[in-house]
Amino acid sequence: xxxxxxxxxxxxxxxxPYCSRLLGDLDRVGLPITKINIWEDAGAAAKVRAVAGGxxxxxxxxxxxxxxxNPRATDVLDATRRHAPELLADLDxxxxxxxxxxxxxxxxxxxxxxAAGWFALAAGNPTTTYHFAPAVVAxxxxxxxxxxxxxxxxTLTALVTALDGALIAVAATLLLSARGALAGPIIVGVxxxxxxxxxxxxxxxxxxxxxxxxxxxxxSGNPPDPxx
Length: 228
Prior knowledge:
This protein is an alpha+beta fold and about 230 residues long. The protein folds into two domains: about 10-90, Glutaredoxin; about 110-210, no CATH class. The chain is built from eight helices and four strands. It has helices at about 15-30, 40-50, 75-85, 95-100, 110-125, 135-150, 155-180, 190-210, and strands at about 10, 35, 60-65, 65-70. The chain has a four-stranded mixed sheet, with helices on both faces. Helix 7 runs antiparallel to helix 8. The relative contact order is 0.12. The model is unreliable at about 1-5 and about 215-228 (pLDDT under 50).
């Protein structure tokens, strides 16, 4: 099977979770693609080996002259915008917006695990201070969501996710304070609870900043990226 050079061709194989995720994301945004199972097409497998350093790594995506090995859906859309922009005309707007935001739960599990770990350590060792634990808890959610999206988050999404992370970090801080588990030494010359809150503020700022990192300002002469 030979794909048209203007089409988006996704080389995949059964049982590949990365293929399933990419195909699901592309299906949600409505991007027309050609799917080729490399286990059923020797020529397709050879083409994948040619662009993947001799390996049959999938998903491999070809858009025009561009070949990408294990890309995110946002990478595929970027390549399509450069090489086959006509395919973007009928994309599902809600799907592309959701893709740009990243799944809301991305980073949430990491944040909750970090919060639970900090809570357990501090409760078991109340005279030991984990100075940057509140910052890690606050930053995990927006950073995780940005990593899953594969691109800077929309501004409102980044700020809301960072504030949500901050609320969880504040809740953990207050619970530990109520248990008397913030009795360790401090490093900034303020009360332990205040220091923990300052750490939350730091983590919130870092999380929001990294979630937004790389965003380009737009002007009237340069319309914003439609995926964002």
